[in-house]
């Protein structure tokens, strides 16, 4: 599988060029007709929209297997703990983790939680854009991409044109974001602030957010619920929010997207096989199914994330309302492996500890 890093410019971009190789998954078959796939909860049941139910229905109809979603509350941490405790991992693969989560897997296991794929079993893998690969050990196949940005209610607050604008009294008590310690959007926003203000200045910026009465909630779902209910008119979410809003018939003025200084943080999700997995054939069938242009287009619309297959054509609503930044921000695997643990610890001490 080709090793690539997302994007080609910017100080935060780190090429994933490590030469390590993961152990291949044992190809012995033990298919009982059920394929268990782990993912995060909102991929199956989001407060906005989700592709999970459609994917299950279509996959079951087209293949001699029954898809079974597993969505543990702890996400990938659940399987790290089971692996380290030498407890059986039931799913055959995990769909929907990013570079920061892969770094967590590798730091907290012996590196054998995930195995490799057999490229010869794929029809659509060759059409995946090389820029989306983020795993230096070639265990992960990209699934979708998006951008972390600011979503705001244009009827009640002005557009924030810079991250510093969020410190203005106009936004006091009106901003909500998810906790970087456990939620992807919160972590991506934290990384964005590190890129913007540097390691010497990002904590000072977060202190300013606290002084402006920012709300730090447990999850993105909690944040989005407050936005929908009008309690928080500015949130950290995704740049494709208006795709969902248009499909739902919502007021598009309520669903405005801001990319301060033309920037947004690039988010890539991938899938990998658990090394203990034994449903070899169905696992590869499912992965190739997810990469097919038709399914990529559905994920683009229902998960509000961009396709990674260059042959996929997103639906018209996505093409019209999805937004990309002029300057994507992104930390690659190597930069995250080196810096992320310390950044999180420092943030926890300075921000979470002072709330």
Structure description:
By secondary structure, the chain is of the alpha/beta class. The chain folds into two domains: 34-145 and 266-329, Periplasmic binding protein-like II (D-Maltodextrin-Binding Protein, domain 2, 3-Layer(aba) Sandwich), CATH 3.40.190.10; 147-265, Periplasmic binding protein-like II (D-Maltodextrin-Binding Protein, domain 2), CATH 3.40.190.10. The protein has helices at 52-62, 76-84, 99-108, 184-197, 202-211, 220-228, 241-248, 280-291, 293-302, 316-321, 333-350; strands at residues 34-38, 66-70, 93-97, 114-115, 141-152, 175-178, 215-217, 234-238, 256-258, 263-274, 306-307, 327-329. Strands 1, 2, 3, 4, 5, 6, 7, 8, 9, 10, 11 and 12 form a twelve-stranded mixed β-sheet that branches. Helix 2 runs parallel beside helix 3 (99-108), helix 3 packs across helix 11 (333-350) and helix 4 (184-197) packs across helix 5 (202-211).
């Amino acid at each position: 599988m080709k090793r690539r890093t997302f994007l080609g410019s910017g100080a935060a971009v780190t090429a994933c060029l490590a030469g390590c190789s993961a152990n291949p998954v044992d190809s012995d078959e033990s298919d009982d007709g059920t394929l268990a796939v782990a993912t995060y909860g909102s991929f199956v049941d989001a407060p906005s929209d989700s592709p999970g139910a459609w994917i299950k229905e279509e996959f079951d109809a087209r293949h001699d297997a029954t898809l079974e979603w597993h969505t543990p509350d702890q996400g990938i941490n659940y399987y790290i703990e089971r692996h380290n405790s030498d407890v059986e991992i039931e799913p055959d693969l995990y769909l929907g983790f990013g570079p920061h989560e892969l770094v967590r897997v590798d730091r907290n296991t012996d590196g054998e939680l995930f195995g490799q794929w057999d490229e010869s079993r794929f029809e659509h893998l060759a059409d995946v854009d090389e820029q989306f690969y983020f795993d230096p050990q070639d265990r992960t196949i990209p699934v979708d991409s998006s951008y972390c940005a600011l979503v705001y209610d244009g009827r009640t607050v002005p557009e924030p044109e810079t991250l510093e604008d969020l410190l203005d009294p106009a936004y006091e008590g009106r901003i909500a974001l998810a906790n970087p310690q456990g939620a992807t959007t919160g972590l991506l926003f934290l990384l964005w602030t590190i890129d913007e203000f540097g390691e010497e200045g990002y904590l000072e910026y977060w202190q300013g957010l606290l002084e402006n009465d920012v709300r730090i909630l447990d999850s993105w779902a909690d944040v989005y619920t407050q936005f929908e209910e009008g309690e928080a008119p500015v949130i950290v979410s995704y740049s494709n929010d208006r795709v969902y809003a248009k499909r739902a018939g919502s007021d598009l003025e309520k669903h405005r997207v801001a990319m301060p200084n033309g920037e947004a943080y690039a988010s890539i999700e991938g899938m990998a096989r658990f090394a203990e997995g034994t449903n070899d054939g169905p696992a590869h069938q499912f992965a190739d199914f997810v990469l097919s242009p038709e399914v990529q287009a559905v994920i683009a619309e229902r998960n509000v994330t961009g396709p990674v297959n260059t042959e996929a054509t997103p639906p018209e609503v996505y093409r019209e309302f999805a937004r990309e930044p002029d300057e994507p921000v992104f930390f690659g695997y190597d930069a995250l492996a080196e810096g992320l643990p310390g950044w999180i610890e420092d943030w926890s001490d300075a921000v979470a500890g002072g709330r």
